[in-house]
Amino acid sequence: MSKYQAPRGMRDVLPPESERWQWLVSRCREMAHRYGYREIRTPLVEHTEVFLKGVGEGTDIVEHEMYTFADRAGRSLSLRPEGTAGVVRAYVEHGMHTWPQPVKLYYVAEMFRYDRPQAGRYRQHTQFGAEVLGAAEPAADVDVLSLAVRTLQALGLREVRVHLNSVGDPKCRPGYLQVFREYFQAHYDRLDDDSRRRLVTNPLRILDSKVEQTREIARGAPRMLDYLCPECRAHFDAVRRHLEVLGIAVEVDPLVVRGLDYYTRTAAEVHYPKLGAQSTLFGGGRYDGLAEVLGGPPTPGVGFGMGLERVLMVLEEEGLVPELATGIQVYVCHDGPPWEDEALRLVDFLRGAGLRAEGDLLGRSLRAQLRAASRSGARWAVLVGVPEVPRGQVVLRDLQVGEQRLVPAEQLPRVLQEEEGGCGRTGAGS
RNA sequence: GUGGCCGUAGCUCAAGGGCAGAGCACCAGACUGUGGCUCUGGGGGUUGCGGGUUCAAGUCCCGUCGGCCACCCCA
User: Three-class SS of residue A240?
Assistant: First the structure.
């Protein structure tokens, strides 16, 4: 055990896992581009105020889980615990309401929450997220949610099922909350302590309780869906119907409740049960009130955030991560010091020709170089300095087949191009 | 934040009060100019860290740090 470890809940990503990340992220970007989303990169830190207002002061995230610190001038800054607040802050700050609407943005970014770590829950994690700003139509909800679902499907996951709910809007939610509170107040003496606490802090979360007696009470609780105003009702029905038109499995789930205050109407989640308690692959919804809270013009918005650590965990478990070809193709070996310069030149030449090539850096014997070549995963070894080989030629050895032949050095790139052309190769070296 | 399980070599794990080990991995050599297979040798550890009990502590006790599981919360 080394003296220093990565901070709790944070981890190093080493090869070949780092290569799987490159693959995953590039797939996410590709899907976002197909849907017409463009990348936004916001600062890793924001003024704490942005999250207090944007995420909500009563939420666990803001109250217990933020990395908040004072900079040298005494300003209170926080590492972002989620992506939406920063994106909307940027939308307002840069006057994006003057851009052609809607504005569709995506990000792949690190988030920080001071939470108790567990597999699939990290203090530093990566989210792929997307937001549609300036569109109140159900079509916008369907656009982002389908991006999330289709991305998971494109990665190979079957059985992606969207749990869909509506949390209403400022017109209908207060009335519902009133009825909701009254219902649970009436059963107060039978509630567990957690739920009593939540009745004050985050009442809708009671619906999520794992305590059986509370669940029983919750089953009889009034449901937001029965209290939606006509506009919210129509919106919910349209989102649901359009997702079904796309063939996306939808399950109406009154228990999907977002922990963040700015959500209105649509609330959606996708779970992957095999992940255990940390099973949410993505969560998202509509936040029509957020831009105003952050000092901007009233701007409807809808988006999602997807936890990529969890997605990658699932993909690996399901064997859906392909072999990656980022390893080297050619390893140049030489037979001792007199040939070092020539080997060096040759490696440089091959790299210049676009091949992934490397040579010995340890002054090793020819035998050890071949061993290194073999273990590097390279398909080809080139031998420089073998006696009886005419000047200008080198030995090209196929490490898979075990055969070798003479090739003029300057023709190596062309020969290798031809050889590699036909057969795909694996080369991550693992 | 609450409760539980677990920390021994780079990795996977033995040793359960009495000399800290194996397999894999890594390095070198042999099988004669050239890898994979096989064989030989080598480097690697304050047993996560700190304290305590004991003649003696990976081993028992306490604390702490870290991982995992459930809760909480969420992606």
Answer: helix
Q: If residue A418 lies in a helix (H) or strand (E), which one and from where to where? A: helix A412-422
Full strand arrangement of the beta sheet holding A45-47: A45-47, A76-79, A68-70
Instruction: Answer for A165: CB within 7 Å of strand B.
Output: no
Q: Is residue A362 predicted with pLDDT exceeding 50?
A: yes
* Helix, strand or coil, per DSSP, at residue A258: coil
Mention every residue, 6+ apart, whose C-beta is less than 8 A from residue A270: A148, A149, A152, A160, A161, A162, A163, A280, A281, A282, A283
Q: Is the ipTM of this complex over 0.85?
A: yes
Contacts of A148 (CB under 8 A, 6+ apart): A130, A270, A282, A284, A304, A306
pLDDT band at A259 (very low <50, low <70, confident <90, very high): low
Q: Which residue has the tokens 């509506």?
A: A166
Helix (H, G, I), strand (E, B) or coil at A399: coil
- For the segment 240-259 of chain A, residues whose CB is within 7 A of strand B: 258-259
Q: CA A105, CA A87: separation in Å to the nearest integer?
A: 8
| All domains of chain A in start order, with CATH | 17-172+228-317 (3.30.930.10), 330-422 (3.40.50.800)
Nearest alpha carbon to residue A100 among A36, A27, A158: A36
Residue A241's region, left for phi above 0, alpha for psi from -120 to 50, else beta, is alpha
> For position A56, what pLDDT does the model report?
82
Task: List the one residue out of A325, A327, A395, A328 whose CA is nearest residue A359.
Answer: A328
Q: What is the mean pLDDT of residues A355-370?
A: 93
Higher pLDDT, A204 or A422: A204
Residues 290-329, chain A, CB closer than 7 Å to nucleic strand B: 305-307, 309-310
